[in-house]
Amino acid sequence: MAGFSDRANSFVDVEVVPHPAVMMVFDLGDRALVVDDGNGREQRGCVVAGLAPNRARGQGQAGSFTCLQVRMSPVIAHMVLGAASELSGAVLNLDDLWGGDAVRTQERLRAAKSWEDRFAIVEVALARRHGAGHAVDPEVAFCWGRMVNGRGQTRVERLAAEVGWSRKRLWSRFRSQIGITPKRAAQLIRFDHAAHRLAAGHAAAAVAVDSGYADQSHLHRDVMTFTGVTPGAVASAPFLAVDDVAWSARP
Known about the structure:
This protein is α+β, with helices and mostly antiparallel strands. It is built from 13 helices and 9 strands. It has helices spanning 74-81, 95-98, 100-111, 115-132, 138-149, 156-163, 167-178, 182-199, 204-210, 216-227, 231-235, 238-241, 243-246; strands at residues 2-8, 12-15, 22-27, 34-36, 42-44, 46-49, 57-60, 63-72, 91-93. The strands form 2 sheets. The chain has a 5-stranded antiparallel sheet. Strands 2-7-4-5 form a 4-stranded antiparallel sheet, with no helix packed on it. A hairpin with a 5-residue loop joins strand 4 and strand 5. Helix 1 packs across helix 4 (115-132) and helix 3 (100-111) runs antiparallel to helix 4 (115-132). The radius of gyration is 18 Å and the shape is globular.
């Protein structure tokens, strides 16, 4: 979890850079934060974005900006939200998934006086839903963990062999429980590593080699696929610039 607070003197329009995690954003500010899912649909209040949303953007009018953001491994999100398939690249309102629980959590967050209290409120809510949810298959959880640790460079066929499943079975179970295919997940994880290297100031050519791309053109294509902008534009994305501070324990 991370808390963000700022004040803007003009309209804010920030692209959501895809991350290998399911994201929840609780809007706690004076102005309405709107998340456009990239397909013309807008969500307000508490928003949930599945893996690799399609060019989603956060927008808001001038004024104070306060939100609490949660990033969850899709393995955990499956238990907490129970909607992996529905969240595949989608942006939804938490009310659609939690019903009255979402409304009550949002009200308690707005009434809280400190970030510590807000984090505690969300932690309790997530733990309660996690305890009542259904776990993913151990094989699926293992494969996701291996992909993350391997920075998206582990072959799907090798993972299937390691868990004793056919490639087809792994593909089907992974897609239904994580929300995207193993190949797409590997691409997303590899992209995330590359994006953070770019944001840290490393040259695109070096990032391509370090991140497992065939060449710089391959990196460029993946960045364009996930964001619609060039590697240079991704490198200057505002939220990537503060990731190492906001998320000090990135996987």
